[in-house]
Give the backbone structure.
Amino acid sequence: MSDKLISVSRNDEVYYRFIIFIILLWVPLSANSKETKGKPEEPVSGPKYKIGVCDWMILKRQKIGSFKLTSELGADGVEVDMGGLGNRELFDNKLRDSHFVQMFGDESNNYGVKIASIAMSAFYAQSFAERENYRDLIADCLATMQNMGVKTAFLPLGVQGDLQKRPEIRQELIRRLKVAGDMAEVAGVIIGIETSLDAASEITLLNEINSPAIKIYYNFQNPLEAGRDIYAELKLLGKERICQIHCTDTDDVTLPYNKRLDLHKIKNVLDDMEWSGWLIVERSRDKNEPTNVKKNFGTNIKYLKTIFQNESNDF
């Protein structure tokens, strides 16, 4: 890892925070010239648990049709991705453009589908600890959140950020997450990180980052794949450390037929924790029909609603 990635002066970080603060004040006003018409309405009182779906997993990554399809699937909201990254300098992000900000906001309101969070799913494959312009990417996400009125971002640390397999990146990763936390705190939002670590190790990591704006975006698939006790992990992490949850397992069967994930028990644990928020469907597709979006995600969402929102149970 090059020296310029390892050390950034405190003055540089403070200066960068100031610049981001100015950008975040300016972008929503300049990008959304029709005042706040393009933003989704602020959520009102509703169920304790809201059910959402990832736009990239329903094959609608940053597509306007994601709101209609999410409504047809029966979900309350959609997690909107920042777009692909690959070899680009920045995300392939339409939501820098006031035209798309307006369209997405209008569709969100028209279908009654909230934007639950903004995702940087490109970091499933990219290395947050080694990408040179990571601060520009975080700034792009935070500005998009401001434009769309969203308070939670999803940042997976992914394969390249797996601290169990790559412990040598730990200090640089923590340093960068501190910077990202400072930026998010200025913007008044939360960045939820997904890791491969167990709950105790995630608590240690959060303590080292030491930022109120960095929390855990918990993914049921990770402890299930590792053979860990998901119910004990949720209790250990506690209410305040978990911002949102990807409430699915790896692809094999849809949720009603998953034998290693007891969602009734999950609800009891979350109730006891007094946690509330978004449960986002990411995977749990039928391996025999992985591209059947309406069957896979419609089934998963309906099942989650029977458990977490007490809707009629046809399973």
